[in-house]
Amino acid sequence: MTEREQALERRVEEVEAGARSLDARLAALERREQELVERREERMTAATAADEERAAALAAREAKLEARERELALIRQGLDAERNALLARERELRRRDAQEARQTFAPPLAPLSFSEGLAAFASTRSRRVQPGRRP
Fold this sequence. Notes:
The protein has helices spanning 3-105, 114-124. It is mainly α.
């Protein structure tokens, strides 16, 4: 073989060695890509699960808040009713106080005269009529 043929064979061997090296590197890169894809899918699954957990926790908190709001509304309603009752009672007390004050400061009633007293007494008594006697 000539020197040129030997150089060509060496060159072919070098190229084949480079091709084998590139094939090995390609296989390693494909494995790495597959690992990255799997990790990404795991993260997406974990993120989805975490999002679902957060959504469930949020829904539970919203339900709890709605229940508390209903309780507070009932408490407010009860307080409003009590306040209205208190206001009505205070108005009634003030009305009574004003009536008592009016009566206190009103001029005293004049005493009844003898004839008025006798007329009142007579109107309360019924007449008894005896049979056989004429008045």
